[in-house]
Fold this protein.
Amino acid sequence: MGEFILQAVTAMCPIVFLVALGYALSARGWFDAKSEALTARLVTTIALPCSIFISLTKNFTSEKLVALLPDTLLPIASMVLAMAVGWIATRMLNIKRGRQGVFCTNFFISNTMFIGLPVNLALFGEEGIPAVMLYYVVNTLIFWTLGVNNIAGDTNRARESFFSPATFQKILSPSLLAFFVSIAFVLSGLSLPSGIADGLRYTGQLTTPLSLLFIGIEISHISLRHFRFEKDLAWGLVGRYVVCPLCVLVLVPFISVSPMSVKVFTMQAAMPAMTMLTIVSKQYGADSRYAAALSFVTILFGMIVIPIYMTIVNMWF
């Protein structure tokens, strides 16, 4: 177990460092409202779509897509189940208006790329990458549809119909477009010239540091003097680290997938809150400071929880 703990801490330390750096720079006055908005926009419209395209076209082939297709049912079903639990919990716990969508989305969406990828690589090596990417694809697609719709309804405006043109325009984000384009490239066997691909790769590499810096910036706006570990944060931790992975495990007897996929899907479901929760909350006018606090505490608790799940998946599967 000591080896698993060391692997988890090693994967988490750079994440905590970048969040702390964003916090320190913001506290020293490096960022104003305009630069914060620019950082969020740069990540969501430029860096993240490039990262999605490069990751999918690099790690998938048409053969891998076809072979892994049956395994897709488990992450889809587990996220839908976790979303239902999150929706019920939101209403039973009387979560504050403005953060309900973030709270519910946190139950079924996890940090599958920025933290999930390095942790799974450390645990399973290159063999686990296809399953990692499969969960990432489902996680990304559901976040930019159901998750974003939840957060968009967290504002003071009335929730728009899911099938309205305005909602469809929000859902059809640059990241989701990048997903569809990359799938088309994989299935057709097309590839970009190396120079263009390298440019997209360099741009995509901005996603992780900028997202984590932004979380630190948002956390800096939270008065630690008045910071309280309130019930909305406590139950958010339960949703992230108990409900989401359990929804994967309880469905395993009913949905047949490969042993490696079971391990990877469980670990991916047990990752901290998705960093994009904070940025998207900022863009839609939801409670981005709550989202930042949720990201922060799940990252800290992840130092303890992730090694536990590492041990569970290696002992049981």
In short: The first helix runs from residue 2 to 27. The radius of gyration is 19 Å. The chain has a mean pLDDT of 84. The chain has one domain: 2-316.
